[in-house]
Amino acid sequence: MYLDISNISKSFQRNDEQSLQALKDINLEIKEGEFISLLGPSGCGKSTLLSIIAGLTKPSSGAVSLDSKEITEPGPDKSMVFQEPALFPWMSVKENVTFPLRKKMRKHEQEQAAAAYLKMVHLSQFAENHPHELSGGMQQRVAIARALAMDSGLLLMDEPFGALDEQTRLVLQEEVERIWLETKKTIVFVTHSIREAIKLSDRIIIMSARPGSIISDFKVDIERPRQQQDMAKLEEDV
Ligand code: ADP
Ligand code: MG
């Protein structure tokens, strides 16, 4: 699915009657099947932009459209993974994955979808367990399986590995990369790690704060990240 973000601005009303401009004039076109990373310091509006794309937050002005259709609310055409897995603790792993599918398909189809996506994130043997029985990294994999099971063309990920240790992060990075290669979904991935962005995405958007805007938009050159000097320079720039 392709995404057209046009003149998005967002202000939040604050208690002291002043408003805070979180995003100013964001313009961005994301092609079908593109894996882009949004990068920038804390508070530059990455989560706000993702939430607007997801239809969870209304922009103050501007519009986002998905395959030329304006996004005004959440829907099955887009799915989101947050920094915290946000699973239902009283449901089994399998039930967490099938929950968003309950109005979309028959029971046995839900079961098939859950089995397929739990296999994709290597959790088949944990289908009947409850979230508290799993590690943080495994819970995040359940959240990824749940988002994938919706089978939307657009996957939004907001610092999905931010709360995980380095080792788990590396494993999940590889899984997301493999899933993207297998499914060819359009992915918008928020991170504040330049290394992660270079490793995973084919395009990087860098934002800055006050007010949140895009300061750089470039394609990732596969050869470049192998050169440590360039990496160091990029890290300085962010
Ligand atoms: P990031 O994800 O890049 O860290 P956010 O999108 O979370 O940034 O926040 C951007 C700015 O908007 C911050 O200054 C934040 O405090 C403010 N903000 C975000 N959500 C709200 C909200 N619901 N109400 C008021 N201010 C908000
Ligand atoms: Mg954020």
UniProtKB/TrEMBL annotation:
Keywords associated with the record: ATP-binding, Nucleotide-binding, Translocase, Transport
A single GO molecular function term of this UniProt record: ATP binding
Organism phylogeny: Bacteria, Bacillati, Bacillota, Bacilli, Bacillales
Domain ABC transporter: 3-234
Enzyme Commission (EC) number: 7.6.2.9
PANTHER family found in the cross-reference section: ALIPHATIC SULFONATES IMPORT ATP-BINDING PROTEIN SSUB, TAURINE IMPORT ATP-BINDING PROTEIN-RELATED
Reaction(s) catalysed by this chain's protein: a quaternary ammonium(out) + ATP + H2O = a quaternary ammonium(in) + ADP + phosphate + H(+)
Plastid among keywords: no
Record-given protein name: Carnitine transport ATP-binding protein OpuCA
The keyword 4Fe-4S appears for this protein: no
Organism the protein comes from: Lentibacillus persicus
Top-rank taxon: Bacteria
CDD domains, A to Z: ABC_NrtD_SsuB_transporters (cd03293)
Gene3D superfamilies: P-loop containing nucleotide triphosphate hydrolases
Record's subunit section: The complex is composed of two ATP-binding proteins (OpuCA), two transmembrane proteins (OpuCB and OpuCD) and a solute-binding protein (OpuCC).
Pfam families in UniProt: ABC_tran
